Amino acid sequence: TTGLEALTLVRSKRPDILIADIGMPKLSGLLLARRLGDDCPETKVIVLTAHDDAAHVKQALAAGVRGYLVKRSAPDTLVPAIKAVLAGGTFVDPLVAGHLFPRRRSRQASIGGLSERECEVLKMCAAGHSTKEIAAQMMLGIKSVETYRSRAMGKLGLKSRAEIVGFGLAQGWLA
């Protein structure tokens, strides 16, 4: 019922994922995520919140949160978020992704600048697949996947995996 209770429980049980309310008493979901990043880095944190603005998402990602869900869309997004986070990715609720990456929506034409391989690698990365998984599915070497991802990110001005996920959401790749 409190963030401190959750911290104690996670420290003793060591789950793969913790789904926490961002506004828990005695220790907020964000402070809990920071603590777990130090104490239990193997436990990934997904937060639920009523806040659907970019500022809260940015604070959550900076705290080490791997999934950000708005409560009103959680019934539709919880399972995809868990899958993405378990696969090593980051999940940002589609309700807030557009606020987080507003410039990306108007850059639909930029996708035309990507090669077919760059686009496919970026889609798989946005879906939460690891480099190793992408390489295996596409029958490519790990270095090739890294090169395709790096080129695509450069062409689109993306700087992180979180931005790839946001871009993918804005493009409708993850809907």
List keywords for this structure.
single chain; 175 residues; alpha/beta; Arc Repressor Mutant, subunit A; 2 domains; 10 helices; 57% helix
Describe this structure in words.
57% of the residues lie in helices and 10% in strands. 39% of the residues are buried. The protein has a 4-stranded parallel beta sheet. The protein is globular. The protein has helices at residues 3-13, 29-39, 54-62, 74-86, 94-100, 102-105, 116-126, 131-138, 142-156, 161-171; strands spanning 17-21, 44-49, 67-70, 91-92. Strand 1 (17-21), helix 2 and strand 2 (44-49) form a beta-alpha-beta unit. Residues 103-110 have low confidence and may be disordered. It has 175 residues and is an alpha/beta fold. The chain has 10 helices and 4 strands; from the N terminus they run αβαβαβαβαααααα. The protein folds into 2 domains: 3-100, Response regulator (Rossmann fold), CATH 3.40.50.2300; 104-171, Winged helix-like DNA-binding domain superfamily/Winged helix DNA-binding domain (Arc Repressor Mutant, subunit A, Orthogonal Bundle).
